[in-house]
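User: I'm putting together a teaching handout on how multi-component assemblies are represented. Below are the sequence lines for each component of a complex, exactly as they appear in our records. Could you produce the 3D structure of the whole assembly as structure tokens, so the students can see both representations side by side? Please keep the chain order the same as the input.
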Amino acid sequence: MRTGKSIWRSLALAGLAGVWIGGLAEADIRSDQAASILIYPKIVTDTSLDTVIQVSNSSLEPVILHCFYIDANSHCSVSGGVCDPQDEQPCPSPGDLCLPGWVETDFRVVLTGRQPLAWKASQGLADDDIPLDGVTQVGPTGQSNAGTRVPPVAEEQFLGELKCIVVDENENAIPRNVVTGAATIVDTSGADLDVEKYNAIGIQGIQGDANGDRILELGSERQEYNGCPNVLIVNHFFDFAENPANGDPVVSDLTLVPCNQDLLNQVPGAGTAQYLVFNEFEQRLSTSTPIQCFFERQLSRIDTRNPLRSIFSVFVQGTLVGQTRIRGVGTGFLGLLRQESGQRTAAVNVNMEGSRAPAFDQIVLP
Amino acid sequence: MLTRRRQVGLLGLAAACVWLAGTAGADVRTERSGSILVFPKVFSDASAGIDTIIQLTNTSNSVVRAHCFYVNAGLTDPSAPPGPDNPRLWQEVDFDILLTRQQPTYWLVSEGRQVNPLDPPCKPGKQDCFNAGFDPGRVPPVVPNFTGELKCIQVDESGAPLNGNSLKGEATIVRDGDIATYSALAILGAEGGANNGDGTLVLGGGQCALDGAICKSDADCGESGPCLQEYNACPGTWILTHLADGAPNPAIPPVGSTESQVFTELTVAPCTEDFETQIPTRVTLQFQTWNEFESQFSVSTTVDCWATFRLEEVGSLALTFDGQDDVPNLPLGTMFLQTRIRSAGGTPVGVLLVAEEQHTDAQLSPNTAWAAANLHIEGERPTPDIIRIPGEQLESPF
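Assistant: Of course. Below is the structure of the complete assembly, with chains in the same order as your input.
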């Protein structure tokens, strides 16, 4: 049992710690609470790959969303096909350069009170699929989804992001923290069915775009929206480690999207991601990558084209698991981790810590 | 012993800090570090090829210690369904871990982790370097066929609970080759709180400074105040957006007229737990569900100690795809639902939830895949939840 002396000392220390903790700014971007802006960092479709997008209104009043698909596919300069600048899907000929792309498509969704709505990214939501069309069907209180139409993603092979912003009837972004979301990625290409699910990342509104300039400031003194986190924290197995439960090799993919985005001028967010990687010996290694628009890469390909020599490789780190802390320079980042064990995968939301204040990020709306 | 004057001075300082720095909030989080980590769903069953990998990380630059509890919620008779004649065991095993600054660690629950500084590190050609790295301490293996939860509480070097908010974790449930990962639920130490370090952990409140009475605010303490806030409150409502049980996954193509199926398995662990008396907590859960046509229905169920069940087992047709059109006053059924879950008004404890989806395709020999998901939360419990730890377990092992 504790002595009276140690209790008094703990009280005083805890009180002092309280002042210190209380003085720290908090990152209030959350994947576990309703918000005014939802970000799905990874939407993917292909021949036998699709993403089921779920969005839900946690309030009793209807809510209008202005959503943007951001197509982050790279394309070959001559043949026009989708390619991967990391050479995992190269262009057919040497002179056919793989050029990065960034194209947005926007649409509107109206959710009635407490309504869940979902669609396949490859199909969208056409008239026949809309539950309460406002003509033949309305909700018990007269609310409807009239005005909703979700297009399919722009390409059959799609990789990118979805962003949904709560707006009013005049398209002004407003601070109603009432929407939640999740995405389920389904892969039917292999011998085994594979499903992974993650929560959309929510940015809570404070005053919304109160000045009506269609520039949404995240974490600024204008108090429009909460700020992006200062650090993303990822727990992961180092690539090529053996799954201790079944011996399957484990690799992980990291997806990062910048908080800064100019959807009006089609200028993708850009910045640098700084990585600090800790292993189970408390040893620290670091690397960095410039990021524009959208970033998805196997961990052990972040710092090298020879994954076996990567600081994310189990052979370099010496232990099975690690902690990676990612800090954005020039923009905040939001992220998602996907673990692959054998042929099966699991997605997991990453932890977020701190605030970028006094730096802030902007989403510029068209 | 401290002099009376110094005691009063320290108490005054602590009280002032509490007053300046705030109160407990509703911040059980899945993407922030916390002072109490809860893994509500931990499974191990060698015969079924099921095991769980626990990942735990110290996100601070200081050494972090934690006191952890496995709570075995297996049935007294595993071959029979749960019920009054077949209660859950609710048996806890505790252990301590220590993590150096920023140190990640892991263990497989069926094996635990031994302290062996000679575990060989990984190197080219040797990727099965299990347990390499600084061992966090002796982690016991769970009993065979374990079902239950894991709870880790950050403590100081004397073994007293501490509001450090330095722990984050994930659990990966491995079923043969398949994996499903969820984030541990992190209960944050109250912002600016002054945890008194005893074995009574108050979630959503604290203890009066002079007499240790449970309090929600200073007003509850009167002259015994202030109320020293300890941990943030358990959520008031959990929000689950899901497919009706048995509904097809729209992204899995049917085979002929056979559709795929999705079932959601919900796991419930109580916020209030008494490890001193080992008396399991009983809670009544209210489910309120809305479908895509904005139709609403509700159902409730009672959970003793801990539970994991498919939504269809709650007893409402409206939570199942087949039953959607059979529910009175439900004009049209839909695939997707929003379900809001909370403790019933008369139940004085909150709950912690995690969900897993089981997707089965339409092949002749069906394939199954699992995906875990953390739920969304809203609001906070109006009354504090309490975790009681036996005093001797708080003696420093470090």
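A couple of points students might notice: The helical segments of chain A are 4-22, 314-317. Chain A is about 5% helix and 45% strand.
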